[in-house]
């Protein structure tokens, strides 16, 4: 159905025509995200200012048109897909970094800036913003905030929630709210900042964020530890995380992943490696060697084959790049994948991996596991061929069993990707009925007409 002409005419009073797309060929790229689910938007609008977003939201309420906030569409759960027609509000024209306050270690930025541009702007000032998703070059700050996205560094420096001081946003009702404070401590009222972070664009459209910055450590090392058994690697993770000297990254790769790194990452590795840990260590020139010694000692067990420090920046970059490219590389394993970003307590990782091996054997479905082991956040990929009748009929039950395993281990369904459309059918397995009821009430207060990113997160 095409867009209501009266709505469009009213929209053009605030937004220039060139920033409103209405033809199917122009709107098409904005109907999907990295899940490849697709729904055609009726129009795509590109606001430039907070006032534009206020205007668009008021109009959507008046005409009861649904609106879906969108950054770069790299989301992994269908969050930015407009399932109920309506408009997509793409925030990419709002990409200014407004303030870098080095004295107070604060940045104020608009939602359309990429994570990578934020890090680049800070590098020369000796600062960084902790969240570092593997998609940093092609994801926006708005998307990071909406999904509480993070990457390897979360283990030492935290996620978006721990590194954001405040937000400016437009609620689904069209009201402007300014949450949080400019300071690193504040206890005034309910914490709306952390409520909006991770709310997946269902409560408010974020138009500005005040970010907490950290000083860049002067020294970094990348360490590669190879294990002859998967248990050896997972036990080392528990050992490393159980002592006081934390690495800034602790990434786990299983045997299939190691093969992908060898084949497509151009990295030579012995053929009997069953698992690999990629460990990032930081500090200053006085502390880094002590940290290396302590963490290396914790990584040792009878199944450790070798532990090596990358001898050049180039070698370190090659390892991290191979890690970042793992997701796209999985297409070489099977035609289709279901990619879950479950999380379990670190001490339960060995049980998780053993359980996944049993499920893989039971269903005859390859399960590839890698990810942020230091947080217990493992990317579990169920690889299958839809043309294989047995796999196609059993894949849903296999996925359900994976989630049941995770919850039995006191884990959580999503560590960083969120729920969106992809996991809403499983939501109630983790969230109790009273909490779900409260969440629905919160949604209704922020967005009484239900125009903002409808049909996401909650079970249908
Ligand atoms: C190859 C690859 C690697 C990835 N690696 C990681 C990783 O390491 N860690 C990780 O956490 N994620 C990762 N992701 C997932 C994804 O990149 C993140 O979720 C990212 O934060 C999404 O940003 P985006 O700009 O693409 O958001 P979009 O996909 O455009 O939107 C995502 C959600 O945010 C909402 N949204 C967007 N902007 C706003 C706004 N201004 N206000 C309110 N809501 C808004 C949307 O409505 C939607 O619900 C990866 C994805 C890919 C494809």
What does this structure look like?
- This protein is of the alpha+beta class and 460 residues long.
- 33% of the residues lie in helices and 21% in strands.
- It contains 16 helices and 18 strands.
- The strands form four sheets. A seven-stranded antiparallel beta sheet has the order 15-12-14-13-17-18-16, sandwiched between helices. A five-stranded antiparallel beta sheet has the order 5-6-10-8-9.
- Helix 8 packs across helix 10, helix 8 runs antiparallel to helix 13 and helix 13 packs antiparallel against helix 14.
- The longest helix is centred in the last third of the chain and has 20 residues.
- The protein is globular, with a radius of gyration of 23 Å.
- The relative contact order is 0.12.
- The site of flavin-adenine dinucleotide has 37 residues, from strand 3, helix 5, strand 10 and helix 12.
Please render the helix and strand layout as text.
Layout: H1 5-11, E1 20-21, H2 24-27, E2 43-45, H3 50-63, E3 67-70, E4 87-90, E5 97-101, E6 106-109, H4 115-123, E7 127-128, H5 141-147, H6 154-157, E8 164-171, E9 176-180, H7 192-196, E10 204-212, E11 214-215, E12 219-227, H8 230-241, E13 249-253, H9 255-264, E14 275-283, H10 288-299, E15 304-309, H11 313-324, H12 326-329, E16 336-340, H13 349-363, E17 366-372, E18 377-384, H14 389-408, H15 427-430, H16 433-446
Parallel strand pairs: 2-4, 3-4
Antiparallel strand pairs: 1-2, 5-6, 6-10, 7-11, 8-9, 8-10, 12-14, 12-15, 13-14, 13-17, 16-18, 17-18
Bound molecules: flavin-adenine dinucleotide.
């Amino acid at each position: 159905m095409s867009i209501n002409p009266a709505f469009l005419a009213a929209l053009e009073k605030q937004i220039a025509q060139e920033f409103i797309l209405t033809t199917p060929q122009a709107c098409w790229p904005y109907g999907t995200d990295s899940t490849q689910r697709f729904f055609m938007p009726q129009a795509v609008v590109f606001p430039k200012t907070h006032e534009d977003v206020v205007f668009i939201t008021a109009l959507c309420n008046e005409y009861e048109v649904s609106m879906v906030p969108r950054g770069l569409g790299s989301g992994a759960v269908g969050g930015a897909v407009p399932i109920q027609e309506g408009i997509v509000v793409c925030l990419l024209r709002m990409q200014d970094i407004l303030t870098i306050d080095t004295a107070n270690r604060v940045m104020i930025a608009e939602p359309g800036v990429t994570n990578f541009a934020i890090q680049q702007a800070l590098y020369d000032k000796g600062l960084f913003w902790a969240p570092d998703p593997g998609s940093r070059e092609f994801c926006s700050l708005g998307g990071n905030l909406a999904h509480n996205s993070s990457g390897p560094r979360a283990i030492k420096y935290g996620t978006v929630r721990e590194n954001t001081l405040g937000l400016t946003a437009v609620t689904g009702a069209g009201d402007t709210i300014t949450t949080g404070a400019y300071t690193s401590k504040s206890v005034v009222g309910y914490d709306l900042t952390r409520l909006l972070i991770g709310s997946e664009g269902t409560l408010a459209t974020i138009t500005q964020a005040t970010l907490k910055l950290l000083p860049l450590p002067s020294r970094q090392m990348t360490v590669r530890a190879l294990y002859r058994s998967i248990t050896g690697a997972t036990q080392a993770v528990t050992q490393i995380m159980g002592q006081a000297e934390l690495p800034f990254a602790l990434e786990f790769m299983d045997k299939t992943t190691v093969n992908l790194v060898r084949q497509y990452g151009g990295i030579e590795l012995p053929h009997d490696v069953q698992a690999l840990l990629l460990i990032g260590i930081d500090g200053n020139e006085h502390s880094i060697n002590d940290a290396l010694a302590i963490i290396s000692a914790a990584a040792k067990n009878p199944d450790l084959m070798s532990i090596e420090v990358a001898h050049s920046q180039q070698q370190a970059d090659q390892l991290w790049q191979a890690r970042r490219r793992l997701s796209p590389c999985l297409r070489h394993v099977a035609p289709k994948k279901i990619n879950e970003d479950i999380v379990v307590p670190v001490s339960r990782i060995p049980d998780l991996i053993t359980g996944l091996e049993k499920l893989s054997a039971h269903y005859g479905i390859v399960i590839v596991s890698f990810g942020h082991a230091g947080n217990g956040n493992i990317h579990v990929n169920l690889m299958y061929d839809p043309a294989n009748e047995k796999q196609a009929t059993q894949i849903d039950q296999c996925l359900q069993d994976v989630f049941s395993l995770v919850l039995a281990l006191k884990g959580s369904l999503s560590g960083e990707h969120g729920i969106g459309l992809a996991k809403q059918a499983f939501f109630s397995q983790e969230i109790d009925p009273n909490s779900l009821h409260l969440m629905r009430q919160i949604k209704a207060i922020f967005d009484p007409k239900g125009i903002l990113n409808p049909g996401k997160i909650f079970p249908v």
